[in-house]
Amino acid sequence: MQEDNKTEYRFNAFHLISWIAVVGGVVVYLLGLWRSEMQLNEKGYYFAVLILGLFSAISIQKTVRDKEEGLPTTQSYYIACGLAFFISIALMAIGLYHADLLPSEKGFYGIAFFLCLFGSISIQKNIRDMSQIAPISTMQSKRSKPQVLTESQKAIE
């Protein structure tokens, strides 16, 4: 019982840290875009790259996990997710390389972008893990309860 509490505490801590990483990364990234002196089309570019990166990171993690668990996945979707993931990273790198920003600003956007990607992958993993743990824990709690049969149930058996 004590080990279950430690595992649950660690799991909740990882889950919380993942959400902090994503929300913090997205908020900081968007605040940086909002306060920057870039043109609107540049801001839109960096916003679109962030959304592409988040979607592709979550999709590729889900596809890899589905393959590991034997769930049906298509190779074409797996390749598309991988391409979108690496394209988002390439677009961010190319955009920052050619941007008229200070090196510290370029680093800021790069770090915030990768923090968002890392956090989104972690959240997807944690949600998937919780969905697998929840049915097991409810099944165990049902098994651990002694079954008391009523008189009518005893008569049926």
From TrEMBL:
InterPro entries attached to this UniProt entry: YiaA-like (IPR038972), YiaAB (IPR008024)
Name of the protein this chain belongs to: YiaAB two helix domain-containing protein
Biological process (GO), any one: DNA damage response
Name of one Pfam family that matches: YiaAB
Residue spans crossing the bilayer: 12-32, 44-64, 76-95, 107-123
Domain spans labelled YiaAB two helix: 15-66, 77-129
GO cellular component terms attached to this protein's record: plasma membrane
Alphabetical UniProt keywords: Membrane, Transmembrane, Transmembrane helix
Membrane recorded as keyword: yes
Organism, scientific name: Providencia burhodogranariea DSM 19968
